Automatic annotation (TrEMBL):
Domain DUF4166: 13-168
Protein name per UniProt: DUF4166 domain-containing protein
One Pfam family per UniProt: DUF4166
Provenance organism: Variovorax rhizosphaerae
Organism placement in taxonomy: Bacteria, Pseudomonadati, Pseudomonadota, Betaproteobacteria, Burkholderiales
Amino acid sequence: MYERAMGDEFHRLDAAVQRFHRLAGKHELEGRVETIAPRSVIGKLLALCLGTPRRSQQGPIRFELDASPAAETWVRHFPGKVMASNFRPQGREIIESLGAARLAFELHERDGALVMRLLRMHFIGIPCPRWLMPRIVAEERGRHDRLDFAVSASVRLVGKVADYRGHLVLPSATAVAR
């Protein structure tokens, strides 16, 4: 799905990022994560609506992936919090359903990293005006058998809504061969 959405840019991604996005079927990955809590009351409320972590913590993460060419489900087991989202392709975009939000992303390669850029968002089915759209920084880098990730989302006048970073250990290369 990501390879189709990115075209030739996909082949310039770090090898571990390519490997992660070529996983098919069901996989459980483990790693470490650090979450940073939203500070404002509205930020915490939005985090609740999205299902993103609301407490600052460090610890293990378990990641469940169910991937097919038509859709992916990601279930992230943070310390004390589970966050699930569904992804599907729409042309050259990837649409993520996360809690009360539906987000449309454009994917790019930058220095081997996968960078996701938010194009549009619907919240509880209502289109979000551009001036109110969150600023999202979502990047993945790879090295050896490890996928490093960093995700941060903030809203003007509200502050952080989500902020987490860490890594996942990838399955062996033979487990991802198609």
